[in-house]
Amino acid sequence: MIRGIWLAALASLAMAETPTRPTLSIATWGGAYEAVQREVLFDPFTAQTGIAIETEAYTGGLDVLDDSPPDLVDMSMVETLAACDAGDLKTLDHSLLMDGADGTPARQDFAPGALQPCSVAHTVYATVIAYDSRAFPGRRPSRVADLFNLDDFPGPRALQASPYANLEWALMSYGVPRRELYDLLSTPRGLRLAFERLDRLDGQVRWWRAGQTPVEWLESGQVVMASGYNGRFFSARLDGDSPIEILWDGQLQERQTWVIPKGATHPDAALDFIRFATTTERMAAIANRIAYGPTRLSASSRIGRHPEAGFDMRPHIPTHPYNSTTAIRKDVLWYARTYQRVLQRFEAWREE
Amino acid sequence: MSESKGVTVRLAEQRILQLAKVTGLGVAVGVVGAVLANLFVAGIGWLNDVLLISPRSRMMQTDSRWIVAATLVVPALGGLIVGLLHRGIAEGRAHGPAEVIAAVQTRRGRLPARPAVLSTLSSLVSLGSGASVGQYGPLVYLGGSVGSIGARLLRTDITVDNIAIACGVAAAISTVFNAPIAGILFAHELILRHFALRAFAPVAVASIAGYVVANAVLPQPPLFQIDPTPVLHLWEYGLFMVLGVASALVAVVYMQSIFAMGRFAGRLPLPRVLKPAVAGAVLGLTALWVPEILGIGSETLRFAFIEGAFGRGELVLVLVLKLLATAWCLGMGFSGGVFSPALVIGSLFGALFGTLIGTVTGATSDLVVYAVCGMVAVTAPVIGAPLTAVIIIFELTGNYELTIAALASVALANLVASLLVGRSFFDRQLRQRGLDLSGGRSKALLVSRTIDSLTRDSFVSVAADASVAQARSAMAKAEASEAYLVDASDRYQGKVTLQALVEQEADRPAQAFKAVDDFVMDAHTTLWDAMQLLRQFVGESVPVVGRDHTLEGTVYESNLIRAYLDIMSEMRREEYAND
Fold first, then answer.
1. Same domain flag for A141 and A48
2. Which of A347, B73, B308, B475 has the most CB atoms lying inside 10 A of its own CB?
3. Is B449-567 in CATH node 3.10.580.10?
4. Contacts of residue B315 in chain A, CB cutoff 8 Å?
5. B298-313 per-position pLDDT tens digit
6. How many angstroms separate the CA atoms of A319 and A303, rounded?
7. Class of the CATH domain delimited by B2-217
8. Rounded to two decimals, what is the model's pTM?
């Protein structure tokens, strides 16, 4: 009830302030993910406020903040922290966030660390290893080390053209415990070992940048194993009889955030959008359609069945206990400070 | 009849009350010990991050000049603080597990609060600023101190104090390794050195309390995680035993290096307070070249478990430098343990052995198995607790094969090292400080007590030039059978007995009939020495003399024997009684 009044007031406010009805530009990730965002967030927001939303393709990185940036970016936590440190993002007043649907104040409703000075985390996603079940009719890959095992699991792999997950998995395949990965990657010896392990895949790797690519390559049989975002693989399976199987061992968890670039043209409308998109109801609606976990506790308890497919979504979320026993938490603070250097090493290695 | 029944009931009540008190103390000591142990470990991690010692914090520092500066300055500055802290301790150095062992073995020492606080702080600073020392020694000492202080708050007797110390030690080990059985075993194997049900119950309770705190209240993984790894061939168990003997020699070199460095540091013409700072400066300088020697070395320990992480030459280099760095830091007065560096050195040595064997024999088990065996076989002789070391592996891995491999490697290791150095690093330390535990606990107890409290002044003394008659009448008056001869300035000149004088002419000098086998003791004579003396002694009392041979009193043989029997029965009661 109160929420309704709020939104109505918000809508009228937006219209009163901007008689020309601005168009909000959002940089986001395309494919199945953006389709869900369009359905659950963008169109309803436009319907309520009259503010149209146009999207621009984004595959990560900080270049998006240069020149005329969009009004909002759906950015990964690592890049958010780095960009915030660099002063490229607007600081956010978290008191603008709505309380949870159960009345929990926003600050307590969000998971610890989800609210940062420049950002509001909205989903938990995982980079996972997936494989083409047609390629392995006998023994199937079951652990991270199998990604590097060309003897038992031959065939081309698709990996992200970034250090993310690749270095972690390489080291993990030596038997390094999850919580020591970043300590060892901080030493020249650890990095060397990781690259040596990746060398094993020499000539068998195809590099992807956009999140939808590994899905397509797996489905078309161009690769037999691939890293990728768990929600994309999930959606692929949802659409039909896809051969893709997810291997949850060593899933790399991270959060996606909403940020407003310093140079945004419509910062106020962007704030309105963040408030709209991070309510308990919207977060739960997203999680019911694509297998990413919400960052609000009140939303987690509302995850239920997929509206069309009708099955329980909970077992498909990265944070579900079945899936997360060997999950790696991406050390976002580490990456925020080291990403450029690690990327340089990674690129130098790729060119070898 | 009814009265004696009432006494029995009251006795039973007392026993139950006592049991409840000791168990309650066990829980309390366990919880407090576990929380402090966790805070200690977290504190080290935090300091390592803030002070740019940990590889992760160094990697995250974008400006490399800061790293160089921190490497050079932090250990030196930490050393300075450590030196200053140690000025507040009577011995001028940190206390550690040796003090805990001595306190329990001699049933004498309680662990005082002041050195406990100062030593814990100085080890926190040492470890936080990157000194190459261990963290478990300080934790054992911290746990023991918590126990002793807790027992004192409850005004318990010395036996309960000892049990409480063991409780604290067990809780600390249980917490940081997530290994409650190892905690219990460690407290028995190293600290108590006997097995009494009355001690087992509270120690087990404390160990479990530590485990619960580590898992439920402050959930944290064990300090070192090892994945289960299979042993491929049965003949490899033979290799593990060989590796064990070789590792024991490494342990001997390691311990002797620490002692040698201590002697070297003692001869350095430097004020004691500055020595750790100098050590830190040298360490920092060397770490610019080989950063692996800084700090606890968790990353190096992990790499030792990975095939191909080190070349063979590198293995030897890092092993030797880590050994020297640890000996250097400990010898120069940094505060910390010997266990964690031994883990690193041992696993590096095991890895080296495994690589060499792998080249010679072809396919062997994973390097992990050899690294584990080396790790256990170097640390077990150092801490003098072979069973604990094996059980830690069992509790960390839950893997039986790996545990048996570890057992094979320690089978001979402790024996070999004990022949060359002693039962443990700590026993050797104590021996150097005058407490020899190699003769068992009864000897330790007797050595730690002097005859001072048994000295009486009820003796007969006569002038050295007294006649036989004078001496006889003096003895008769006092109803004594012995008299001490003293000169004008009260110096002891010998002893005469009534039997010797009884048939002699009255006016001859008594001196002529002095007892031949004449023994004296002084106030510092230990009960142990006194008992040794009694073997050759005939008579009823032994004179006690002070400086210049002045006669100060006498000790009756009967009192000596009574004291001996009291101590032995006290010890037996502590070690065997169930209540």
1. no
2. B475
3. yes
4. none
5. 899 999 999 889 988 9
6. 12
7. mainly alpha
8. 0.83
